[in-house]
Fold this sequence. Notes:
Helix 4 (59-69) crosses helix 6. It contains 22 helices and 14 strands. It is an alpha+beta fold. The N and C termini lie far apart (105 Å).
Amino acid sequence: MPEAGAVAPPESVASMPAEPKAFARRFRLDRVGAVAVALIVVSVAWRAGLAARGWFSQDEFVLAAQALDARLDADFLLQTVNDSLMPGGLLTAWLMVRLAGFASWPWVLMLAVGQAAVGVAVYRLLRDLLRPGWGLLVPLALFLFSPLTLEVSSLWLVGLLVLPMQLALVLAVRAQVRYVRTGRLGHLATVALWLLFGLLFDPKALLIAPLLFLLTVFLFSDGSPWRSLVTVVRRHWRGWLLLTLLSGAYLAFYLTRPARALDQLTSPGQAFTFLGDLVGATVVPGLLGGPWRWTYAGDGPPLVDPYPVAMWLSWLVLATLVVVTVRRRRSAVRAWLLLACYVGLVAALFAVTHVGGVLGPMVGTVPRFVADVVPVAAICVGVALFGLRDDGERARYAARPLPGVPRALGSITVGRVVTIAVLVAVGTGAVWSTVRFGENWSTKHGREYLTTAQAELAAAPADTVFLDAVVPDRVVAGYFWPDNRQSHFFRPAERRPEFVEVAELPVTFDEEGRIRPVRIEGVTVLPGPVPDCGHRVESGQTTQIPLETRVEQWPHVVEFGYLSSGDATATMRLGEATREITVRRGLNQLYFPLPGAGETIEVTLSTPDVALCTKLITVGRVVPAS
């Protein structure tokens, strides 16, 4: 008989067997998970819209043309692109260029799928790593909406590098957490597989191995630093040996690949400037919703340019967050140290490889270089704010009251108020930064140039022929030569110009993409000695025609105007370069490439009983006639 005052459970619930109860709990709505999915969907959709507003950018044109020309072999897949060994990215680009060409939506879809995969992986990692609850959404939102990853979700070439590396980093950390907790070698094998996956797309995935070591030392060991280090090495030596062997083998192979020389630092001041830009202007403001202002960089992604006041406020907010979390939770100290160490690894990598070059002063303001810091920051912020899932810290460590806070308020209340204020400020800043990024990214000279050129080609006569020339620098910069030539640029296009070596009436594209007659801008020949003829060339003889000034070695184009007594074969020579051309009877002109150097043009007629006169020979570059 039940005791007085006891409330008997309803018959339906009391009589429910244990197995149906477990089944019901399993399929009960996970409200935190539902909100997490909603955040991922909103982030992916928003960023897909931003990506669609932009288009191809600079070296993406270059790689698209190269992929379209290349055979799918080891030489193509194992080449270095901007010093990056990325066979997985090149394979994807090779397939996508053939399937999509310059159509933007397949590339946007590819980036969206990658973002969704990484977002889901980050949430699953946070759920495994941190204490359950609504707090999981804070580090997840930090990752999903960080302006530091806008470039990754907008440029397909950057996305091909960074999204797989982010995915590999997150899933390798998740497998490492499970390996540390269980000791099962299957999880260690998963760690190795994800490391290899990341290395297929970006050499920067080499940083995954030291990250896993640091994460294990800081978050999964106790005691003094030396004791933690020794314990982690001894307990998990198999993992460190495996990761060292894989990383060493990859690095040895990478160093055998052709690549440009490393950009060496030239002064300590250069290093301090780089660190100030990378950490002070990029990482810290970026993790707190910045940079709020961007520097326009043409068709390329904008560079960070935070307002000075906002930058210093972001540092103040970070310092406050560190102090509050450290006083509230012992694991926060190790979490912040982990983040600082990983940022240090990234800074050291780029200081050694990129800072000393021509573009070195801008390296610290390029957000994609620290895009992999964002998932690490999400992990560290989550641990600092909410603690590890299984560390039992609440039972061992009592939070200390914040200095200067009245007891009536309570440190918990103050903590909640501060947290809400920080979240609102960071969220507002992230929205503002994202909107401003989209305004910069939507300006695409390459898209306008190609659209005009495609319309012009559609209206041009079928026999229109083009001489090759370079596209405007704002479309593809000159330092990409020869991949900035029109013959390279238009390879993936729906309508492609017909480029020829020799032509009488060729055309070219002007700065806006309109078709214009060709004019050669360069050095002309001196007036000839023969009245009403200029320079006379007889059959079987070589006539040397002096130029106004010497021309240096370059892929020159020659404009050759002549009057011939008959059809004949002529040989033109400039230094070591020669070209055989066909001349026709009468007054005509020809345009052809002659990549040589010298002070004279030599003309030889090999057809008997033919002579020609010429007053017009110009050696230079193709430009559109006005």
